[in-house]
Amino acid sequence: MSDPLAIFFGEPEPIAMTRNSPTKLQRWLDLIAYLVGRRLPVAVEELMEKVPAYAEKWKTEEDTARATARRTFERDKDELRRAGIPIRTVAYLIGHETIEGYRIDRRDFYLPYLRLLAAGATPGPAVLGNPARIAEVEISSGHIDLIVDAAQRVASSSSFPLADEARSALRKLTFDLGQPASPESPVLFVERPDALQLRDRLRVLSDSLLLRKRVRFQYHGLYRDETTSRDVAPYALLYHKGHWYLIGHDDTRNALRVFRVGRMQDVDRNMHVPNSADYDIPSDFRIEDHVGRRAWELGDEEEPGVRAHVLFHFPLALWAERNAYGELVDQRRDGSAVRTFDVQQIDPFIRWLLSCEGEAELLQPMELKNAYREMAKAVYERHAAEPEASGG
Question: Is residue 383 very low, low, confident or very high in pLDDT (cuts 50, 70, 90)?
Fold first, then answer.
């Protein structure tokens, strides 16, 4: 039976031993404890001698055993980095010799303490002690309810890709600030049929984005109604109007593209040299340039899209102008106006026009006019039938 596991993060020597071979979790905790407890970078030879799981084989001075210990360390290091543990490789000088070592910066390793700002509020004992000088994040009392409500909404949807992170955030809020208030009534969500598959794709994409690794996938484009292979460097993930989009540089098209995640299949991350970034996000890339765009503008095709001409009758023309919908090309004497739109996704654009209840008239092109009539007909047939009268 194993001895109790004890970790002292303030000491350079971890105390984590078992009578049998240490488990992977014990190795990880011992390695983390040793690096967090040291202020200077640690050479790999020191880790081999001081971390119990590696030292057992390292001290035998047998080449095969030492090679096994070193491979185990390299594997543990890579797996911990993929799990988010910030193990950094650092070059430092000893005399005139440059040595390569490893370290974990406490400021990167520990989450900041949360502090609630209210009249007369003071930091709790954990913040006052703060031996590691961990950063603090101050939250006003007016914002805490919004934060808790948002986290609870995300956490309650099992298929949402950040549900686990939201539950972790709620635990952090509970620990630092006290138990968050529960919602007065539950929030019910209707999840799309492919929600779990979508979550798995987003996991791969978000991990690839954080690690700066390229992704390959099969993508179904609506414009040509065909599936193509894509090789993309992810720049951002965007959630817009109930759909997730990947923004990145598509090497197969040598251009920036926007992809709807729901149309992706077989999403794979490039595993070649897993701890090295494949690309850098350009300094001139701004996610803000995409956040404010309409649903029909978030295109994913290499074609320039469709230029639509829409006549807005008065007074709807004033509404379109004030909300900067489209570009004005013709202002008429009766107050109506013709505005043009660059449409990448036809369906959301037509649904938006239908919501104008006939006060916005699609003039051209003909392919959009035909699609508009078909969707209007489908909506009419869906809702025109009278409900059956109940007996009584």
Answer: confident
One fold for both 195-297 and 306-384?
A: no
> Per the structure block, which two tokens stand in for 233?
């460097």
Domains of the chain, residue spans? 24-106, 113-177, 195-297, 306-384
Report d(CA 329, CA 333) in Å as an integer: 14
- The sign of the CA dihedral 199, 200, 201, 206 is positive
What is the model's pLDDT at position 13? 42
Residue 178 tokens, joined: 């006290």
Nearest to 169 by CA among 127, 137, 140: 137
How much is the pTM?
A: 0.50
* 3-class DSSP string for 194-227: CHHHHHHHHHHHHHHHHHCCCEEEEEEECCCCEE
What average pLDDT score do residues 303-318 get?
85
Domain 24-106 classification at class level: mainly alpha
> In the CATH scheme, what architecture does the domain 306-384 have?
2-Layer Sandwich (3.30)
230, 259 contact by CB (below 8 A): yes
Please give the Cα distance from 334 to 180 (Å, whole number): 57
User: Tens of pLDDT along 129-155?
Assistant: 444 455 677 777 777 777 888 888 788
pLDDT tens track for 203-241: 899 889 988 999 999 988 765 667 889 999 999 988 876
CATH among 3.90.25, 2.60.40, 2.30.30, 2.120.10 for 195-297 = 2.30.30
